[in-house]
UniProtKB/TrEMBL annotation:
The protein's name: Small ribosomal subunit protein uS7
Matching Pfam families: Ribosomal_S7
Role played: One of the primary rRNA binding proteins, it binds directly to 16S rRNA where it nucleates assembly of the head domain of the 30S subunit. Is located at the subunit interface close to the decoding center, probably blocks exit of the E-site tRNA.
Domain annotation Small ribosomal subunit protein uS7: ranges: 1-151
UniProtKB keywords: Ribonucleoprotein, Ribosomal protein, RNA-binding, rRNA-binding, tRNA-binding
Source species, domain of life: Bacteria
Xref: InterPro entries: Ribosomal_uS7, Ribosomal_uS7_bac/org-type, Ribosomal_uS7_CS, Ribosomal_uS7_dom, Ribosomal_uS7_dom_sf
Subunit (UniProt): Part of the 30S ribosomal subunit. Contacts proteins S9 and S11.
Keyword Ribosomal protein: yes
GO CC annotation, single: ribosome
SUPFAM superfamilies: Ribosomal protein S7
Family: Belongs to the universal ribosomal protein uS7 family.
Naturally occurring in which organism (per UniProt): Capnocytophaga bilenii
Amino acid sequence: MRKRQAKKRPLLPDPKFNDQLVTRFVNNLMWDGKKSVAFKVFYDALDIVEQKKNNDEKSALEVWKDALSNVMPHVEVRSRRVGGATYQIPMQIRPDRKVSMAMKWLIGYARKRNEKSMAQKLAAEIISASKEEGAAVKKKMDTHRMAEANKAFSHFRF
């Protein structure tokens, strides 16, 4: 890289739960710079999760954090050219990349669901991910399966 790496900006914690992870999620959820709309969607989704969940010992925020950890991948495949051939090489994922991939998958597959509002879509995806089912968890499983299938090429690591 020619330029130096950009500094990590500190994130302000969200107003309701005082959690930086929530702010990071809402920043990924946001469209067209409309952060207040994104916060409303997220909080409404957590309210729906609170109503729909069947166990009383966990709060909606804990259910969301469980869903996020269930979607988080541990290994991924990276392409690498070795002597004219391209190999898919399994690699460990950095912790911050794990979190961002999990958030993007959760939001992306929530958007593809067919409930009425975005809050309902997000709530349904959070509930299904916390039970280790749903499209986002399937994406994680596929990523892990791909890495497992290409384990033979791990000696090409860079």
